[in-house]
Amino acid sequence: MNQLIVENSICIDAPVAKVWDLLTNSEQTKKYMHGCEAISDWKVGSSLIWKGVFNGQELVAVTGHIVEIKPENVLSYTTFDPNNAKLEDKPENYLTVSYILHSEEDKTNLVVTQGDFAQVAEGESRYNDAINSGGWAPILQEIKKLAETE
């Protein structure tokens, strides 16, 4: 079976340390991730939750665990939407998101992958939803704006 991976990348005119802070600082993640804070102690195996306020109620939008972390270089974590009533909250339904950062002078190349949708329940539908919404491109544009203006 072919893999179903969403991949987006962007070049950001900011140092890698600033981009890394945007990815791992909960006060920063709220600014580009639909109002959600990324909450974790950022250690391999630790939980990661994306929490925000929706319609006046605090809600955990996404849960997962840190898979790999190399500060200012790689961050990989699993993700699952616990509010998706169609899918059971079990490891087979989690996707992996990876951020890979490369520094070139004072610029940062950021690559984000998410998948493998071919390995999860309703994977093709979930993959198509991700692709049809632009994948990570809209979020990367927001990260770029923040990194280049703050």
TrEMBL record:
InterPro entries: ASHA1/2-like_C, START-like_dom_sf
Domain Activator of Hsp90 ATPase homologue 1/2-like C-terminal per the UniProt entry, residue ranges: 13-148
Gene3D superfamilies, per database record: 3.30.530.20
Family membership: Belongs to the AHA1 family.
Protein name: SRPBCC domain-containing protein
Organism: Xanthocytophaga flava
